[in-house]
Amino acid sequence: MTFDKRKVVYQIYPKSYKDTTGNGIGDLRGIIEKLPYLEELGVDVIWLNPFYPSPQRDNGYDISDYTAINPLFGSMADFEELVQAAKEHGIELMLDMVLNHCSTEHEWFQKALAGDKYYQDFFILRDQPTNWVSKFGGNAWAPFGDTGKYYLHLFDISQADLNWRNPHVRKELFKVVNFWRSKGVKGFRFDVINLIGKDEELKDNDAFDGKPEYTDRPIAHDYLKELNQATYGQDEDGMTVGEMSFTDIPNCIQYSHPDSHELDMVFNFHHLKVDYENGQKWTLKPFDFEELKHLFHTWGQEMSEENGWSALFWNNHDQPRALNRFVDIEHFRKEGATMLAAAIHLSRGTPYIYMGEEIGMLDPDYDTMSDYVDVESLNAYQELLTSGKTEAEAFAIIQAKSRDNSRIPMQWNGSENAGFSKGTPWLKVGKTYREINVENEKSGPIFTFYQQLIRLRKAMPIIAEGSYQSAYQDHPNVYAFERHLGDERLLVLNNFFAKEVDIDLPESYQSGKILLSNYPEMALSEKITLKPYQTLAIYQEKSGSKDNCQ
Ligand code: TEU
C-alpha cells in the first residue's frame, strides 16, 4: 500500500523544542507536552532529528548507539510514552536514520581500531586517500589509528562512513530500522541515503570535490530495495523519505517511483542553492528568482509526468530561515511567510513544516562568532579567514548561512529564553522572541494560514493527488502552477516580490472560485493585480476550456 498523500509532516529539532528539566536542552517530555499544540496545527507526522547516544560533534548525526536514547533527551520509557501519546493526538512519528556513517565512538569503530578484522570491514579503509573533499571541509580521509591506513569520512572526522558492500553491515543496519519499527514507529527519514553506494574502486575526481564517485551510484538503488524489503516495505501505512545530497531528477524518480520499492519520497536541495555564488554555500548573493522558478518547474513537471514524489520544504535544521533568504521581512514578514507556505503546500508532493515556520520565526541575528556552535560553521569561518576574507566579511557570511540559524530554541512566549528553558539554552535564543512567539502568533495570520492549508489538503483530492503543470513560465515575478485532477483545475499564483504585479487571467479562471489568498478577497477578471508577496489559489471545478496560463 502506498503512503497517504494527504499527510503533512512537521519537523522537530528535539534539542531546541522544549526543555522540561532545566538543563538547557530540549527533551522528549517537552515534545509530549507540546502534542496538543501540534494537533491544533493539524499535522499528521512528526520527524524527530536524532536523539540517540552521541558525542554530539554533529548534534546527534554522529551516532554511537543506534538503538538507545541519549539521556540528555530522556529515557526509552519516555520515548514509548511519546509514541503512545502522539497516537492519541492522531500523530505518527518519523525517526531519523543516519545509516551512511556512525560515530567513531560507536563500538563497531572502536573494535575495528583495536584490530578486529570483522569490524574493520564495517568501514571504508584504504592505503591511500583519494582527493575527495569532506562536506564539512578538508580532505575526506583520516588516518585509521596507527595502522598506516585511512578511513573515509564524507562529513566530520568523527563520522566514519559505513561499508554497505559488506552484507553484515547491511544486516546490522536493517536490524536498527526494525528495532524502531517494533517500538511502533512507522515513519523514517534516511540521512544522505544516496551516498551509501560507494564504488568498489575509489578514484580521484577533480569534479565537484569527488561527489560523482559516491553519489547516486546504481548500487545505492539496489541497497534501498533490499532495505525496503527487509524492513518498512512490510508496513501498511508507513512513510519514508530519503535525503538526497547533490542529486538529479532521473535518480529521484527512481528512488520514489512506487514500482521501484525503494522510498516513498525524496528531499532535494537544488532550490535552496539559488542564493549561492557559483554553487558555493559560503558566499553572499541575493536569490536568483529565474533559477528558482526554473528548478521548481522542471522538478515539478518531470516528477509529475514520471510518477516520482518529492518532499516539499523551505526550511530544515541545516538551512537558514527561508524568510530571511527570500522575503523583505522588514515590511512583509507575514505576507511572505504565507506566500512561501502556499507555494509548497499547494504544489505536488508532501509538505514539511520546520518548527517555528508556522509562526514566522527568523534567523537569530547573533552579534558575535562565539554565539555559533555548529561544527560546519566553525570550520567554514576558519576557511573563510584563510582564503583572505576579513573577520567582518567572514562573520557576515556565517550570520547569513550558518545551520545554527534554524537550530535556535523554539519561541513559545515572550518570557526569558522564549519559554523554551528555565536553564541556560545550549544555543542562544534569537533576538525577536519577545514579538515572534507562539503565544502572540497562534491566532495570527501565519499560524491560521498553515492550519487552513493543512485542512484544505485533506478536503481536496486535487491538492493531494493532482498532477503538476507549470504556468506563466515567463513571468518575471510570479511563480505559478496548475494542478489537474479529472476535470478539476487549480491555479496557484505566487508573487515573490515586494511590489504589485499584473497577471492576465484566462477565461476559464475568471469564473473560478478563490480558494485561498493571503490578502482580503478580490474580484477575478481578465487582468488582476497581485499585491506584494500575494498568493492566490483559484479553483475551477469543471474546466471545459483549453485555455493556457501564459
Ligand atoms: O545533511 C546532509 C548534507 O548534505 C549537508 O551537507 C547539508 O547539505 C549541509 O548541512 C547544509 O549546509 C545531513 C543532515 O541533515 C545534517 O544535519 C548532518 O550534519 C549530515 O547529514 C551528516 O549526517
SSE inventory with pairings:
Elements: E1 9-12, H1 28-33, H2 35-41, E2 45-48, H3 76-88, E3 92-97, E4 101-103, H4 107-113, H5 117-120, E5 125-126, E6 141-143, E7 150-152, E8 159-161, H6 167-181, E9 187-190, H7 218-230, E10 239-243, H8 249-256, E11 265-267, H9 289-305, E12 311-312, H10 322-326, H11 329-345, E13 350-354, H12 375-386, H13 391-401, H14 404-407, H15 438-441, H16 445-459, H17 461-465, E14 467-471, E15 478-485, E16 488-495, E17 501-504, H18 507-510, E18 513-517, E19 527-530, E20 535-540
Parallel strand pairs: 1-2, 1-13, 2-3, 3-9, 9-10, 10-11, 12-13
Antiparallel strand pairs: 4-8, 5-7, 6-7, 14-15, 15-16, 16-20, 17-19, 18-20
Bound molecules: 1-O-alpha-D-glucopyranosyl-D-fructose.
Description:
- The chain has 18 helices and 20 strands.
- It is α/β, with parallel strands linked by helices and 550 residues long.
- It folds into two domains: 311 residues, TIM Barrel (Alpha-Beta Barrel); 78 residues, Golgi alpha-mannosidase II (Immunoglobulin-like, Sandwich).
- The strands form five sheets. Strands 11-10-9-3-2-1-13-12 form an eight-stranded parallel β-sheet. It has a five-stranded antiparallel β-sheet with strand order 14-15-16-20-18. It has a three-stranded antiparallel β-sheet with strand order 5-7-6, with no helix packed on it.
- Helix 3 links the parallel strand 2 and strand 3.
- It is globular and about 75 Å long.
- The mean pLDDT is 97.
- It binds 1-O-alpha-D-glucopyranosyl-D-fructose (TEU).
- The site of 1-O-alpha-D-glucopyranosyl-D-fructose has 14 residues, from loops.
